[in-house]
Amino acid sequence: MGEIKEKAWDKSLEISILERWKNSKKFEFNEDSKKEIYSIDTPPPYVNTPIHIGHATTYSIMDMIARYRRQKGYEVLFPLGLDRNGIPIETAAEKRFGVSLIGIPREKAIEYCKKILEESSESSIDSFYRLGISFNSFEKGDRPGQIYYTDSEEYRILTQNTFIDLWNKGLIIKAQRINNYCPGCRTTLADSDIEYKNLDSTFNHIIFKCKETGENLIIATTRPELICSTQMIIFNPEDERYRHLEGKTAILPIYNREVPIKAHPQASIDKGTGLVMMSSFGDLSDIRFFRDENLEPIIAIGIDGRMNENAGFLKGLKMREAREKIIEKLKEEGLLIKQEKILHKTPICERSGDEIEFIGMEEFYLKQLDFIDELRRISEEMNFYDKSSKKILDDWIDSLTTDWPISRRRIYATEIPVWYCKKCGEVIVPKEKGRYYQPWKEDPSIEKCPKCGSTEFIGDTRVFDTWFDSSISPLYITKYSYDDDFFKKAYPVSLRPQGKEIVRTWLYYSILRCYHQTGKPPFKDVWIHHHILDPNGMKMSKSLGNVIDPHKILEKYGAEPFRLWAVIEGNLDKGDFSCSYERIEGAGKTINKLWNVARFVSILNRNLDESVKPEFNELDNWIMHEINEIVEYADKCFFEYDFHNPATTLKNFLWESFASNYLEMVKARAYNGDKRFSKEEQQGALATLNYVLQRILQIFYPIIPIITTKLFLTIYEKDPADLEFPKYEEIKNKLSTEDIVELNSEVWKYKNEHGIKLKENVKRLSINNKFKCIEEDIRSLHHPESIEYTEEEKIEVE
């Protein structure tokens, strides 16, 4: 056995262990292993942005899961994926090079995006390394467990292969439909890309005319620029003010077009004036209304986000410009009665923050509405941690009203492998899978159109929604369509860990996509985590200036205090919790306590004598029983992704039961300088100290692997990564934690109150008979001149 030389733990000691893991490729995935595979489908962060405190926390917990499962005998597939597709990359390129990628040749736009990716320091990889995350590899490659890029040719081929499969199954629709459109991102969006915010807006009270009666109809609207696209005026059937208008005709102001008036429950009596103009399209309710009433929409907004010819005098104006222009016109003609400020629930793009418009566009759609019941059934086959988080998924599935628009009018993402016959418009989808197609720059793999025989083709220029790519990560990491034997062993994936905010996107789309490909659920378990907040309980954001940088934490404290804080602070699958430097520094005290205890035990080990059989007493049995109770508890909790409760329990055990009580009581027996104890009793104390310490280190290993590896290697010359999780051993004990703690506390309290030093004597100690079995340990700690044993539970000190 070795001895710890360093007097205190220091973050600089982490470096040697991290390098040891890196150089030995300790956690590399072994494809030939006969062990059962445990796989983790980690969320790929964007490669060109540094990781934030949420990443650092949640990936640390994912690492704890991976390390624990290795301890339990699994071959763990734990790859790092990096997302390199989509609008964030394009936006970074536009800012960096001062260009609009839409307005330049595509080859040049892609070149700019690749420069951004090449210039990226991939600092996230370094941060993960410094956090001690045991990914299978920190090298890029196509073997299981190696780093993968979502823009790699291999990944994009798989995305295109699945599209070809879906097309051949009749699950892809090409249709002209009303879509969510982001003017900022300049592309169609799915419902899952949209969030709603209450924004400042204005109710404009505008005069419409009733054709039949000539009366003024006052309608309040936040979107006067859409008067031109209005196709009906409605009122609530219970609204007595307007019942006489049923079946009559309204004349639109400015445009003088006639539209019908109808009673409909979608109108709210107490909102605005009770009369509502139904336009195409102000919001999602308008879209549903037009569909239900079979109304022909008048699309007044183009894909450039400007008003088109249907808007008349507003043509060419941006949305807000058009709103200002028509309000000015209404005022001039005396048609604007009043304006009132309101908060309006507004759909906005989750990424850009732009207000969403609803535009008719031709897109590709993946069928999902026909499979709602199957998706619900499949979700029931997966275990959710915490169970309540499944409701997020259920609510999203229940809210679906359209198929998923999967095509995007962007540049840096996986191309849709489709061509069109220039003569007859026939859609050409490749029959051959396994190669990467770029229709915007190459011809299809056929010589002539199968329908008309033409030899001229036009390639589609659109790309897939990035979620169409990301959602197949469980297929990619298990080698779907590349290695059938491996896929059979590795699928479904054991665990999907992810944030609650992307349940409706990454989780839902993964379930949908994998169901369409395999007919099975993609995951056995789903772990949904909440958010890390600032010290005041506020969500972190750059605009608020309250972001905590994990790199600064690593520089100041190292990885281990942060990792321990991540599980001591709270149970992240139960709710949000706050982060602060003070709390992380507090976790560092436990790291130091562990180091000091282990160092002290390693010094006591100078007295070990393997030739002497250890003799254990009831104090030893008590502490060994207690650590085994924690072994059993931790094993159960870790299995269900709960690291918080066992970590808290073990931390308290380390400080209180082990360090403050047991270690203090057996110190004299372990040294045995005055030969008060037999050699067998001395070896019993030393054997117990090492027994308990090893189990503490093994339980703590998944949580704080760097310090536990350092201690284990130094003291016991073993790597805890090579050891199984400790097995529960039943050890009979006559004394309890309450017994020991109460005894010591009463004596220490008495000495403190009477100004007696801890090493000085007390005259008399009256205690229960049950303590007779550890009398010498009691004498060596508390130095009573006499001990009286009674049947009473009461402890008396003089």
List the helices and strands and how they pair.
Layout: H1 14-24, E1 37-39, H2 53-71, E2 75-77, E3 81-82, H3 87-97, H4 106-119, H5 123-130, E4 148-149, H6 153-168, E5 172-182, E6 187-189, E7 194-210, E8 216-221, E9 230-235, E10 249-251, E11 258-263, E12 275-279, H7 284-293, H8 319-332, E13 336-349, E14 357-366, H9 372-380, E15 383-385, H10 390-399, E16 404-405, E17 407-408, E18 419-421, E19 427-428, E20 457-459, E21 463-464, H11 466-470, H12 473-477, H13 484-490, E22 493-499, H14 503-518, E23 523-529, E24 532-533, H15 550-557, H16 559-568, E25 577-578, H17 581-604, H18 618-639, H19 644-671, H20 679-700, H21 705-716, H22 737-753, E26 762-768, H23 775-782, E27 784-790, E28 796-797
Parallel strand pairs: 1-2, 3-4, 9-11, 15-23, 22-23, 24-25, 26-27
Antiparallel strand pairs: 5-6, 5-14, 7-8, 7-10, 7-13, 9-12, 10-11, 14-16, 17-21, 18-19, 18-20, 26-28
Helix pairs in contact: 2-16, 3-4, 9-10, 10-14, 16-17, 16-19, 17-19, 17-20, 18-19, 18-20, 19-20, 19-22, 19-23, 20-21
Structure explained in plain terms:
The protein has 798 residues and is α/β, with parallel strands linked by helices. It is 38% helix and 18% strand. Strands 7, 8, 9, 10, 11, 12 and 13 form a seven-stranded mixed sheet that branches. Strands 6-5-14-16 form a four-stranded antiparallel sheet. β22, α14 (503-518) and β23 form a beta-alpha-beta unit. α3 (87-97) crosses α4 and α9 runs antiparallel to α10. The protein starts with 13 loop residues before the first helix and ends with a strand. The model has no long low-confidence stretch (mean pLDDT 93).
